[in-house]
Amino acid sequence: VKEERPEKVPDLKLLVEKKFLALQDKNSDADFRDNEKFVQYKQQLRELKKQYGMPADREYDWTEGIDEDMIVTQSQTNFICPITQLEMKKPVKNKVCGHTYEEDAIVRMIESKHKRKKKACCPKIGCSHTDMRMSDLIPDEALRRAIESHNKKKKRHSE
């Protein structure tokens, strides 16, 4: 192109910038509101803030209008104990790695390992916490309430 008429060579940088700006203008807040991963992220952020007594930032809270059942369904996976694969009744959280388990199951697992002079590893797949202790466990009241609340709603819907 340059050999023929250098003055007719298009400004590629300008063309790319124009195209980029046009695409950028198409993006909207609605795209975020409909994105499943973003909704999940906002819900987890809100739950963490609530758990640590922090105020939720309402001005950026686009998830308010989103169907609650959808969010509940996404968080239900957190209700299942990685050891028993059953819904937890008395969830306890590991202070070190943040994973949650059914209290009886994790206590039995830790005691069993320690009796045999072995270290207890977090049973959550992919977790690198290899020396769990009873003192690492704290009751997860927020999760217990969420499970109870979910079960009450489920019960009401089935009646």
Report on the architecture of this protein.
The protein has helices at residues 12-26, 29-33, 36-51, 68-75, 103-115, 141-158, and strands at residues 91-94, 100-102, 137-139. By secondary structure, it is mainly alpha-helical. It has a three-stranded antiparallel beta sheet with strand order 2-1-3. Strand 1 (91-94) and strand 2 form a beta hairpin. The relative contact order is 0.10. The chain is built from six helices and three strands. Residues 59-66 have low confidence and may be disordered. The longest helix is centred in the C-terminal third of the chain and has 18 residues, at 141-158.
> Which residues form runs of ≥5 with pLDDT under 50?
59-66
Strand coverage percent: 5-15%
What structural class should be given to the helix and strand makeup?
Answer: mainly alpha
Main sheet: strand order? 2-1-3
Whole-angstrom Rg: 25 Å
State the separation between the terminal residues, measured CA to CA: 75 Å
Shape: elongated
Mean pLDDT: 78
The string of secondary-structure elements, in order, is: HHHHEEHEH
Q: Assign a percent range to the helix content.
A: 40-55%
Described by strand count, sense and barrel closure, the largest sheet is: 3 strands, antiparallel
Number of strands: 3
Number of helices: 6
